[in-house]
């Protein structure tokens, strides 16, 4: 490259400006990873005519590159929606929805079994931003109409509750909300957007923690907010821009790379989880298995009506004769199941929860332990739980 025909540019500048342009027409299955903060305009007129709200062009890395636009389009398709926005985590997706739709003086209803940082965010919004936040019984159904006030703007739902596994009557809640002009948001992470179509049941906004099944590798933190409505999407886009939410394109690529196997992985987790849940139901140590696909689960009828699958996450209630120290010892004794937050990868996980401290009304006295079933062989997982039960019983006997 030269500045003019007779004056070549210096070595330093040539390290920055190169005349080489790769040939067009490259085709391959993996999507290209387009990194960018600065996005180039062909001239000043193009820069002045830019619109970051319109995804038919590019303006700045924060608003997206072809890589993130591709993932957003594919996620909207999976969820049965029209628009999607990527954010840095599942919790950021919840935050985006709250901050886009609520202002001081507004009221929001959150189920009292919701992902606890969602409730914690609500408490913060209430303490610092003058937003009224009320918790409701997730099984309230159509009676939610009695809780809707003049200033209620948003109703959160999570189906099922990702620790205690209640299955809300989404169509009933959405119908009541719609009748009063209130928006409904759904945390659809449990079903990966595959087993529950929130929009078909009347939900306005669906969020996903892509950190879980979509990533599938226990390595990426990311979230998504999907809508069908153009105006709602614009409100979310404005908040997204104002909050400065961006995602790394290498991470976006990792999610794109794992999307083709999403359904196969989800179904494999589902099949193994049902086998384990069925086995656990026969065990004397367990008084209840909280898995919506089990026929005796209180939410089974609604789950069967609204869902087409179940994924790998469920909980059990230990018999109350086992102390918390003993059930902790059970979890500590597991070898294949690891102790850690999040889920959606190949490795099985297990966590005990102190639900009575989190819920207003919780009928069980025994410890709740949540299992996430990975992609290991089910018989190996059963053997692992069996040996951990034995270890727990040895402690009981001594
Ligand atoms: C149901 C549910 N929603 C949202 C989140 C938040 O996702 P992230 O960890 O990406 O913030 C989680 C994470 O555990 C979750 O389980």
Question: Could you explain the architecture of this structure?
Answer:
The chain is an alpha/beta fold. Helices cover 36% and strands 15% of the residues. The protein is built from twelve helices and eleven strands. Helix 3 (66-79) packs across helix 8. The longest helix is centred in the C-terminal third of the chain and has 20 residues, at 262-281. Pyridoxal-5'-phosphate is lined by residues 89-91, 115, 162, 187, 189, 209, 211, 221, 223, 342.
Q: Main beta sheet, described?
A: 7 strands, mixed
Q: Total helix count?
A: 12
The share of residues in extended strands comes to 5-15%
Q: How do the SSEs run, as a string of H and E?
A: HHHEHEHEEHEEEHHHEHEHEEH
How much helical structure, as a percent, in the residues? 25-40%
The class by helix and strand makeup works out as alpha/beta
Basic shape? globular
Mean pLDDT: 96
Give the strand order, joined by hyphens, for the main sheet: 1-7-6-5-4-2-3
The small molecules bound here are: pyridoxal-5'-phosphate
Number of strands: 11
Gap from first CA to last CA:
82 Å
Radius of gyration: 24 Å
Q: Low-confidence stretches at least 5 residues in length (pLDDT < 50)?
A: none
